[in-house]
Amino acid sequence: MTVESPAAHSALSPARTRRLTAAGLALIAVSYGLARFSYGLFVPAFRAEFGLDAAAAGAVASASYAAYCLGIVLSTTLTPRWGGRLVAVLAGAVATAGTLTVGLAPSGAVLAVGVVVGGASTGLASPPLAHAVAASVAEERRSRAQAVVNAGTGVGVAVAGPVALAGEQWRAGWLAFAALCAVVTVWAALAVPTSRPERAPLLPRPLLPRGSGRLAAAALLAGAASAATWTFGRDVLVEGGMSVRASTVGWILLGVFGVLGAAAGDLIGRLGLRRTWPVTMLAMAGATALLALVPGTVAVAWPAATAFGAAYIAMTGVLLLWTTRLHPRAPAAGVGLAFLLLALGQSAGAPLVGALAGATDLRVAFAAAAAVAVVGCLTRPGSSAHHAPAVRGQDDRAAAVDDRP
């Protein structure tokens, strides 16, 4: 197995670094914000158009998360062999195909296929972008570049929000998403660099260091707890009596304030991993609970949506640093395993939320998701992860592949 060595090429100039960072942010925005998470924004329209009940909507979301899991495994394998540029282009092409399929879907089954394909694009997009930044960007600019690219999810969610106001014209919106995905794919082909491969291990050694059980439980619980808002967030606002426009604004706020989650690194620097993890999980739990209690009240639901967006992106940042401290010499595979578990939690959580909503109502399901997040805050990092220093140098840079769920 080979990975691309950052030592094989000189660091990008500041101008080329900005081009890579902007293109990476755009690719994450269209894959996560449009091809994957905007499904939850359009669930009310899809349910009306195709006669989907809550359980069916949850099952489609679950399949999308499962496709993400497959995509991350495939991308982690292909990136060292093909290079960051080619896999990034593949991710953009898959996102384009998924959004185009949704826009043209004649039935619920075809809709599901498009959503699943779109979900796969997110797993494909993350490793090549993170690898390109780690391998090509100067060390003093690398952390900031990764943080900016990571913020793409919030940007994409915010962009998708106004399109939902089209109502019955949602197909035109998804066709516009497809066109935007295609443009970003070309951009990635021009901006993402490639480099010469060299031999390095794919899996971390040891595979399961001390503290891995805590990390696995935390990732699974965080994924399950977040699935409610990502799948039924706008649906619960509409069912709570909020207007279409007001609920859409709530979703836009979720995306815009999700960008603030990029400050997770600064928060960790102040509080440490052991304190930051429960803070982000409790914030996500509180936001989810507020959406369950008063979904139709703008003065409460909008702040709750903003809190969820910031907490979710910050939570993924904490999870990223946590796993790189457990695997300081092989962060690539360690992060891949952690975010695979996060996606598996979302894949399991979405249909469970849908089933519970079908048996009771969405507010009860959201309350249950909030309870799961509270439990998740208890699985905080142990002292070994808190104190383990990150290894700098070639081992770290060559393998640094992160993910952005």
TrEMBL record:
PANTHER family: CHLORAMPHENICOL EFFLUX PUMP RV0191, PURINE EFFLUX PUMP PBUE. The keyword Heme does not apply. Gene3D superfamilies: MFS general substrate transporter like domains (1.20.1250.20). It is a multi-pass membrane protein. This is YbfB/YjiJ family MFS transporter. InterPro entries: MFS (IPR011701), MFS_dom (IPR020846), MFS_Efflux_Transporters (IPR050189), MFS_trans_sf (IPR036259). Residues 19-385 form the Major facilitator superfamily (MFS) profile domain. The chain crosses the membrane at residues 20-42, 54-74, 86-105, 111-135, 147-166, 172-192, 213-232, 244-264, 276-294, 300-322, 334-356, 362-379. Residues 393-405 have a biased composition (Basic and acidic residues). Its main location: membrane. It comes from the Bacteria. It comes from Georgenia wutianyii. Residues 382-405 are annotated as: Disordered. Keywords: Cell membrane, Membrane, Transmembrane, Transmembrane helix. It is found in: Cell membrane. The keyword tRNA-binding does not apply.
